[in-house]
Specification:
Blueprint (H helix, E strand, L loop, with lengths): L1 H9 E2 L2 H11 L3 H18 L3 E2 L4 E4 L3 E7 L9 E7 L8 H7 L6 H12 L7 E3 H10 L12 H6 L4 E8 L2 E8 L3 H7 L14 H12 L7 E3 H10 L12 H6 L4 E8 L2 E8 L3 H4 L5 H5 L14 E2 L2 H12 L7 H17 L3 E3 L2 E9 L5 E8 L7 E8 L3 H4 L4 H5 E2 L3 H11 L16 H16 L4 E2 L6 E8 L5 E8 L8 E7 L6 H8 L24 E3 L1 H7 L6 H7 L4 H12 L3 H16 L2 H24 L5 E5 L4 E8 L9 E7 L5 E8 H9 L23
Parallel strand pairs: 1-5, 12-16, 17-21, 22-26
Antiparallel strand pairs: 2-3, 3-4, 4-5, 6-8, 7-8, 9-11, 10-11, 13-14, 14-15, 15-16, 18-19, 19-20, 20-21, 23-24, 24-25, 25-26
Helix pairs in contact: 1-3, 2-5, 21-24, 23-24
Length: about 700
């Protein structure tokens, strides 16, 4: 038990590893873990572990185990365990191969290979022989181990496999099908893929996958399942690790993903959409993102340790020439030269686990072409080229991430607690919030920094040893609060590291701030004209009702929707379904169906439009009575100013949503969209603390979802 506790504290064991080991040895789970733990502690005590380029190895009687640094999740363990079947100790020669290939494999060897393959692949489905061969090699089941010179000859000896040739894309491919051996399956006790029998993955595993995907893909955008699967595999989130035989089955278990089939080019494709999980957004990113890899582990050249996938190379050629095909030798040479130069000049940047460098190439429209490599643990490669194409303006894509791209903040909860404790007290969470996480403050500081960066108000000292910005918040004595930073260690992925908050001339950082900057860092400014502050009742207001009703139906109060859909059994049935489920994934599908139905039913659509028009007329009357009713707000994604008007849709004394209106070039107002009250408060708080009867943080209920 003591050995097990040491092992559990120091080593993280993926499901894939322990399941495969159980399959191979026939051990029960607890026995297998204890056996590995004993071998680990014995190797440490006797100093028999062997150092490798990636980490350490130790052995049991049947297997060789590998320990590599844990860069795949935020668990406390320092190492990740993987294993290979222990090589046979015998002399290999061509004569040995010829002699062995005349023999039938022993049942023990056949069973060993069967257990490895069924732990990784489904039965009775044709699979590419290359895929089978690679998995066997990765698990130590090499052709040499069993005395064969060719993998195909070995596979033909296995009675549970059938091989056939099939013409695919004009090329003959070898396909392999694994057939069930019932008596061996019974011995394995179906331990290979346990989670397929469970209702859902544990939340810890869901969160781990969410963090990997959120760091690599945009949210609320359709993505090819193949792209999702590849990224998960590259980051160590394989289907086997979570106990599944198919990636699609695993993805269907994740509540933050929705999947649908879509016909593309005559072929049915699986499309996946990643949805926001607000309660997980506030957490720190995975260790793989924060730790990165030390600079000296990067290859010096794009050598044979770096996989250059043909698809990525085709994308490189597309960016340079406009044609998606294999690049010329000149373009390939430029790619290699670009990496070499970036490596020598130390200009490689890290973002989302990728190491980005300039290729020195340009697109036909004059945009810089970049490429990036990521680490991988699969196959003989340590790295792979994961992207090549035109550089994107990432700042405009995700304003909320600008601060984290600028500096390492440490723990978000700690960072926010420090700021909230120093600032003039105000509510930083909504009413009856399930977690007091300073949600409003986080959004405020993220978007404030983004605005400051656009205004070039992030101050950096001449010697580049100190940086600061004005948070826009004040202490109880109304002194400005500044966020201060020092240079981060080289190759940490970001340039700066947060130190602390301070006020000007206060002891410590306050004195350093005054010594470095004159004038002191200025707060963000938003107002450039009086129209940004005041709603002009003389101007016309034209509203995009279709976008509000059909595209933003979930933001409308459900009671209002039910009232306007009275008399329609189909619509009311869908609304009842919404009220009876707490699964927001199902809710999205139902809302989509209800939106389509309302759009196809003019009677319902016109009812809702008429009610919205009445609410807008009432809002204009409120503005006439009190000009402060129209609240200015800032939208980071568009870097634009707008005004928000209250819309009372159910009770004229109670606001339900906010209408966002924007002044157009013609001088009219455009009603662009609606916001929930929570969204409206977050956008309005960037400018100042809203002082309005209809937008009071103390009365706004926490919502299930929050869109940035």
């Amino acid at each position: 038990m003591y050995n097990f506790q040491i092992f559990q504290n120091e080593v993280w064991v993926p499901n894939k590893t322990i399941n495969a080991y159980c399959c191979m040895t026939g051990r029960e789970y607890e026995v297998a873990i204890a056996e590995i733990a004993d071998a680990y502690c014995e190797a440490k005590r006797d100093q028999t572990m062997v150092r490798t380029a990636q980490g350490w190895t130790f052995e049991t009687q049947r297997a060789q185990f590998h320990l590599v640094p844990n860069r795949y999740n935020d668990a406390s363990q320092a190492w990740v365990l993987s294993f290979r079947i222990k090589p046979l100790q015998q002399e290999i020669s061509q004569g040995f191969f010829e002699e062995q290939e005349k023999k039938i494999l022993s049942e023990e060897m056949q069973r060993e290979i069967y257990q490895v393959l069924t732990a990784s692949f489904p039965k009775e489905e044709p699979l590419a022989m290359a895929k089978i061969s690679k998995t066997m090699a990765d698990m130590g089941c090499t052709k040499e181990r069993y005395g064969f010179s060719k993998m195909k000859t070995l596979l033909e000896q296995l009675p549970f496999l059938t091989l056939k040739g099939e013409l695919q894309g004009g090329v003959m491919q070898s396909l392999v099908t694994i057939h069930a051996v019932p008596e061996w399956d019974k011995e394995m006790d179906i331990i290979a893929f346990p989670n397929e029998l469970d209702e859902r993955l544990p939340e810890e595993m869901q969160r781990e996958i969410y963090q990997v995907l959120a760091a690599s893909f945009p949210k609320e955008e359709p993505l090819a399942m193949a792209k999702i699967s590849k990224t998960m595999a590259d980051m160590g989130c394989t289907k086997e690790r979570y106990g599944f035989s198919k990636m699609k089955t695993l993805l269907e278990q994740l509540p933050f993903l929705t999947m649908r089939g879509e016909l593309q080019g005559g072929v049915m494709q699986t499309i996946v959409t990643l949805h926001v999980m607000p309660e997980w957004e506030a957490e720190e990113p995975l260790q793989v993102e924060k730790q990165g890899l030390e600079e000296n582990t990067l290859p010096v050249e794009l050598d044979n340790t770096v996989n250059l996938p043909q698809k990525t190379l085709n994308n490189l050629n597309l960016a340079v020439t406009g044609m998606e095909q294999a690049p010329s030798d000149e373009i390939l040479q430029a790619l290699h030269a670009g990496f070499h130069t970036a490596r020598q000049e130390n200009t490689i940047q890290m973002h989302n686990g990728a190491y980005i460098f300039s290729t020195g190439l340009w697109s036909p429209d004059g945009k810089q072409v970049i490429a990036s490599i990521k680490p991988t643990t699969f196959g003989p490669y340590r790295w792979y080229l994961n992207f090549a194409g035109v550089i994107q303006d990432t700042e405009s894509v995700s304003p909320g991430k600008a601060l984290e791209r600028f500096a390492f903040l440490g723990s978000w909860p700690s960072f926010l607690e420090q700021l909230a404790g120093k600032a003039l007290p105000e509510p930083w969470d909504f009413k009856e919030s399930s977690q007091k996480s300073n949600f409003i403050l986080k959004k405020y500081i993220q978007y404030t920094f983004y605005r400051l960066s656009l205004e070039d108000k992030i101050c950096i000292s001449e010697d580049r040893r100190f940086a600061a910005f004005n948070t826009g918040l004040v202490t109880p004595y109304f002194d400005d609060i500044y966020a201060c930073f020092e240079p981060q260690e080289e190759h940490a992925g970001v340039t700066w590291r947060f130190i602390d908050f301070c006020t000007a001339a206060a002891r410590g950082l306050g004195k350093r701030l005054v010594d470095c900057f004159s004038p002191l860092p200025e707060p963000a400014s938003y107002f450039e004209r009086k129209e940004d502050l005041l709603f002009d009742l003389e101007k016309d207001l034209h509203t995009d009702y279709e976008h509000i009703i059909l595209d933003n139906l979930p933001r409308l109060p459900l009671g209002f929707v039910r009232e306007e859909c009275r008399g329609s059994e189909e619509a009311l049935s869908l609304i009842s379904s919404l009220e009876s489920t707490n699964d927001w994934k199902k809710k999205r599908e139902i809302y989509r169906e209800l939106s389509d139905f309302i759009g196809e039913t003019p009677k319902l659509y016109n009812r809702m439009r008429n009610r919205l028009e009445d609410a807008i007329k009432l809002a204009r009357k409120q503005v006439r009575w009190n000009f402060k009713t129209a609240i200015p707000c800032y939208f980071p994604t568009g870097n634009t100013m707008s005004l928000m008007l209250p819309l009372a849709l159910q009770d004229e004394r109670k606001t339900d949503v906010a209408l966002v209106v924007e002044l157009t070039r013609s001088g009219n107002y455009q009603g662009q969209t609606i916001l929930t009250l929570q969204q409206a408060y977050v956008d309005g708080r960037l400018l100042c603390r809203p002082n309005s009867e209809w937008l009071d943080v103390r009365e706004i209920q926490e919502e299930e979802e929050t869109d940035e």
